[in-house]
Specification:
The chain has 70 residues and is α+β, with helices and mostly antiparallel strands. Helix content is 26%, strand content 14%. It has a two-stranded antiparallel sheet with strand order 1-2. Strands 3-4 form a two-stranded antiparallel ribbon. The radius of gyration is 20 Å and the shape is elongated.
Length: 70
């Protein structure tokens, strides 16, 4: 009996690495960036971060505190 993964590899071959989308780099948090992603660059440090992670970046790097007005 053969492991299911081995059986699949024997039938279909290895993943076609050429079919993977090209990435445009890695951001501050290690997230892959793809062409068309909205990014923000910190001019003070040169760090790049996905726009959706900007709040997280400001909390981690600059110790910003976010809350709701009361």
């Amino acid at each position: 009996m053969e492991h299911p993964t081995i059986t699949q590899l024997n039938r279909k071959g290895y993943l076609n690495m050429m079919a993977q989308p090209e990435h445009a780099g890695i951001d501050y948090f290690g997230t892959e960036l793809f062409p068309g992603d909205d990014i923000v660059e910190d001019p003070a440090t040169g760090d790049v971060v996905l726009k959706e992670d900007l709040e997280k970046y400001l909390e981690v790097v600059y110790d910003f505190k976010f809350s709701q007005a009361e």
